[in-house]
């Protein structure tokens, strides 16, 4: 495709230096990649500026560059105000605007994106609609599953995935939309059939700095959809949307809502509730997932499915068909007198929710094993320590993904929060040994929750990802015991 064709539909001005008829055969944002006839995006980052790597990209075959400032090079250049934003639109053009051929549904929020997306996919699939999914756990194209990278992929990968979904005959695509993706223009230009905002709680302050900036990034989704569904019980989100004059459908339990739940009852098998659409149909739903937070997720999925044209019967059938979501309050098959639960909770609010939920169904002690990731919001570490101490009977503080930090520095910060609350905890830095301790000391009726890593199959230490699948590790340890 020619440069002139790639920039034809850009919603902002650009300047072309060099031959606009230059043929582009592939797109890349990695200067180390061999790309014969490639277009290289000089993305300015937090720590490095890819403009500095343009010579390497050209030597590896790039024939054109997207830049924010002119460079001294013979390669053609497309000068724009924002390379990040341009990358989204140029990638869409290069792959033939695949999003325009799909019914796109976006889900943002701090918690619940993954579970809501799996619930919604179950509804659409049960209703007979081929559905793709892009999210934290995986990418799914029909029944085929692929490993995920970022929650929301970078623009080139994102558009390539959408094209593959078009070719595979997908009708709907459900995608988790992260605040980072919205702030970095990864999905700029995409129009959603409908979108949902699950909630807002503390997370990612290492990047956004303040909760106000974090909220502002997520609120951008309101301008990208024809209809927005909001958890009306999250008053911060509701106020933010009202302040910007956005219209939305309300889903919730406590506040007046358009889609709501009554007669919520926790059971051994999950949770039952009466699903109601304002002044319309009502159905009893037997959800196989436990916890009040999953009722909220189900309400969001139901409201989005309704906006997508699904019947109440299909919504009920799809919600009830979902058995579990990988790494989200996932009960492991351990054949032990105690339960072992795997959960991705890695923020204060998420940890509090899962511990509160499991408390209701635990006859014995609730044992919480958790840590915090390195290179991320350090302010939440003592908060999570205090939450663990408050809601669990016993805590095992351990390492999560320390990344470039010293594990004990992170653990010390968590311990500073738990110490004033309780002395019922132990520190075991090695996560495998921490899991062993939990399994060896759990008694009949206890619940052991392994929090923080969920679906992840690695542990990142000093920048290296080491294999670490907690499902496999639990099995191995139980066999050894």
**Rg over CA atoms:** 24 Å
Share in helix: 25-40%
Number of helices: 16
End-to-end separation: 61 Å
Shape: globular
Biggest sheet, spatial arrangement of strands:
9-8-7-10-6-11-12-13-14-15-16
The strand count comes to 24
- Uncertain segments are none
CATH domain fold name of the largest domain: UDP-N-acetylmuramoyl-L-alanine:D-glutamate ligase
CATH architecture title of the largest domain: 3-Layer(aba) Sandwich
Strand content: 15-25%
Say which CATH homologous superfamily of the largest domain is assigned.
Mur-like, catalytic domain
Structural class: alpha/beta
How would you sum up the major sheet? 11 strands, mixed
Count of domain modules: 3
* Overall pLDDT confidence: 94
CATH class category label of the largest domain: Alpha Beta
